[in-house]
Amino acid sequence: MKFSITQSAMMMYLAAVCLCWHSAKAQSTDSLRKRDLQEVTVKGNKPFIVMRADKIIMNVAESPVAAGSDALQVLSHAPGVVDQGSGNYELRGKKVTILVDGKDSRLSGDELKEWLAAMPAGSIDRVELIGNPPARYDAKGMAIINIITVRNRNFGTNGTFTAGPGAGQYTRYVAGLGLNYRNARLNIYGSYDYQYNKQYYQLYSSRVLDAHTNIAEDTWETRERNNHSFKAGADYTINARSTAGIMLKGLLNYRYRKVFTTSVRDYMGEASDSFSTVGTTGDLQIFNPFVNAYYKTDFDTSGRQLVVNADYFNYDKTWSDNYITNFYDPKGMTLETPYLLRDNSPANNTITSIAADYTQPLWKGKLEAGLKSTFTTTDNDIRWEQQTGGAWVTDAGKTNHFIYRENIYAAYVSYDRSIKKFDLQAGLRGEETHMEGVSLTLDQTNTRNQFNLFPSVGVTYNHSDKHRYGITYRKSIERFSFNIVNPFVTYVSQYFYYQGNPNIRPSIGNSVELSYTYNNELFSTLSYQHYSQVLTDIYRQDTGDVVISTYVNLRSAYAMNASVTHSKNLLHNHWVSTNTVMATYAKYNEKRGAQLTNSGIGVYVNTSNTFILAKGLTAEVSATYNSPMAFGVYKMKSRYFVDAGISKSILHNTGKLTFNVTDIFNSLTTKYDVASFGVMSSYNNKIESRFMRLVFSYKFGNQHVKAASNRRTGIEKEQRRMEGN
Fold first, then answer.
1. Backbone dihedral angles phi then psi of residue 29, each to the nearest 5 degrees
2. Rounded distance, CA 526 to CA 2, Å?
């Protein structure tokens, strides 16, 4: 590996550290005699992982491994969370919706991963893993991962500065500044974070199309990213019972990629008859603003409360690629003129939402009810051109302008009550959905309306302070990502395309889970999920030797999962160990193609260990292992990785210096086989994962804590489906 850090970046980093050290030293000297007369706030470290009956909480700031990383890497350490590939996450075997501050990006696939990779870990306060969300959450997804960003709770003026270099195959660095002012009635805050990184992708595939033909493709890609994230807002206490606020946040991301793919076609047992190369260069720009305005009022002191949220989310993408395909004979001689292709694929996706949530005591319990309307429009204008005779001509077979509109009108009611040793919860959510997909290029329109009821029920028996037993049921819907219904073709090489399917329908899921909790340190579950019209991706051979990857609805599928998570303080609280073991079995019920019914048990093991070595010195070691597993058209191979980090509090606990290494053994490689409608494929994908990082963080200003008010915003599931290219 090459660990090179530019001199200018290092000088800026050291200058920032020295500046903050001198500032803290001067502040310490000037106020040394005043300390005995002033209030002193003593803060203990939070545990990295906290287990509760209804959720597991990851306090990201307490993880040395997370420092300088991003949200994508944070999720890789979440207990019970498995990335099934292409941004499809599961929690304890359940399909997951990822929220940020209670809002869903509606992104999926590679775009979701790019979005999470652009979110600095330093901007994340905690991650909540909710296995059984109540009715107030949208019906999408059987489980929820809620990423909650940092909100300062201190009076006065204060802030946080973060900076640090890193290296893998290439240099990377992060920097960020957050400021906050709070008095008795007003809180004003803002932050800016910057990330630069360059990362390699090495992908290999081998596809058997028939008894004679084999296609082997080898791809090397580098992606260079400049990510900017920002947040600004204000909260105002109108009176003793009412507050209001507005928040603006977003991302501005630039990515440049360079790809080189070699494709070889040969006959079994014979020398290759030809090969081709594809050189790709491309630029991607994403501007992603989000605005939330809220009003919260308490009608009295009994718990009657109304919260109103209005949200606006926009995902504006400019994407262009240039492809040069060259064709050669077995001796490397050029066969024909290079095939020149380019695409310009702008996309603009907008979500607006308004929601009202009401809470009040009722019959010794709590009643919650709410209304929500969500309006989504996605506009994807995919324009492909090929060069013919020195002129660029539209490629009608790949070009498509597609607009998708979706309006969801929802209402819910839920009731919670405790009766002796039982905690009871029941909820019902109704969602009316209007969908319209319009291909302006093909002059095709698909419309669909549907209404669904989504009940949820939970019963917990508190046998004692230490023993708790529970059973839950939840019905949910799996909405497709927006790009899936767009029938456009995405060119990868002369032998491989991606294509959408405008006839896709949402999938309905039902889940039952049994749980047992011991002393809030051991949490075990046994669950069963059943899906109808389940959505899956398949591979099929098109004309000639081309393979197309697309999506279809299968009749049904089911999954069973058993998990145990245990967290324990050891060595007089100097060692905190959290360990998860999970087994999953899943199978499709489908008559088309015997390969779609492949199934097998998969095992997941995760361990996270935090060590308090000395005063202000903390170390962390974490590891994750996934066993081989067969499901549908896929047979996944095993994979594992180990991360480690160490942090030291400095500058009278106002600063922290952290060093970490991810994927120490460089072992994280995704290998799998695919058998789908006569196409037999093997894949070996290595995305760069071993990095070293050195991160310095410094807190300045007043550090006295005021309890912060919690609020949920209205968009909670919609933002995720905008991705999948």
1. -65, -45
2. 46
Query: Strand pairing of 124-130 and 339-344?
Result: unpaired
Least confident interval from 80-94, 272-286, 623-637, 709-723: 709-723
Nearest to 320 by CA among 344, 296, 302: 344
Q: Residue 542 in contact with residue 496, Cβ under 8 Å?
A: no
The string of DSSP letters for 411-429 reads EEEEEEEEETTEEEEEEEE
Range of lowest pLDDT (31-35, 57-61, 66-70, 712-716): 31-35
Name the amino acid, one letter, at 87: G
How do strand 522-541 and strand 547-570 relate by DSSP bridges? antiparallel
| Residues in a beta bridge with 20 | none
CA distance 389 to 392: 8
pLDDT digit string (tens) for 491-530?
Answer: 777 788 888 888 888 999 999 999 999 998 999 999 999 9
Residue 16 neighbours by CB distance under 10 Å: 17
* Of 382, 374, 377, 329, residue with least CA distance to 350: 377
Q: How far is CA 257 from CA 282, 320, 672, 696, in A?
A: 5, 10, 25, 29
What is the identity of the amino acid at 328? Y
- Give the Cα-Cα-Cα angle 710, 712, 715 (nearest 5 degrees): 160
Distance CA 447, CA 433 (A): 11
Q: Of 425, 432, 430, nearest to 411 (Cα)? A: 430
Which residues lie below 8 Å from residue 202, measured CB to CB, with a gap of 6+?
219, 220, 221, 685, 686, 687
User: What's the CA gap between 356 and 411, in Å, rounded?
Assistant: 10
The helix/strand/coil state of 215 is strand
At 7, list the tokens. Answer: 């001199």
Sequence letter at residue 637: K
Query: Counting beta carbons within 10 angstroms of the beta carbon of residue 276, is it exposed (0 to 12), middle (13 to 18) or buried (19 or more)?
Result: buried
Amino acid letter for position 718: E
The answer to whether 600 and 586 have CB atoms below 8 angstroms apart is no
Neighbours of 565 (CB within 10 A): 23
Name residues whose C-beta falls within 8 Å of residue 680's C-beta, 6 or more positions apart in sequence.
207, 208, 673, 674
The candidate with the shortest Cα–Cα distance to 568, out of 600, 607, 594, is 607
Scan for tokens 């319009």, then name that residue.
438
| DSSP state for residue 500 in the 8-state scheme | -
* Residue 492 to residue 548: CA distance in whole angstroms: 10
pTM summary value: 0.85
The helix/strand/coil state of 305 is: strand
Residue in the block written with tokens 């720009």 = 285
Contact between 121 and 72 (Cβ < 8 Å): no
Please give the Cα distance from 393 to 566 (Å, whole number): 61
Query: Which tens digit of pLDDT belongs to each residue from 121-165?
Result: 888 889 999 988 988 889 888 899 999 888 766 778 999 999 999
Q: What is the DSSP letter of 154?
A: B
- Strands (E) located in 38-121: 49-51, 56-59, 81-83, 89-91, 94-100, 103-106
Residues 6+ apart with CB under 8 A from 339: 323, 324, 325, 326, 327, 386, 494
Give the amino acid at 232.
Answer: A
- Under DSSP, is residue 33 helix (H, G, I), strand (E, B) or coil? helix
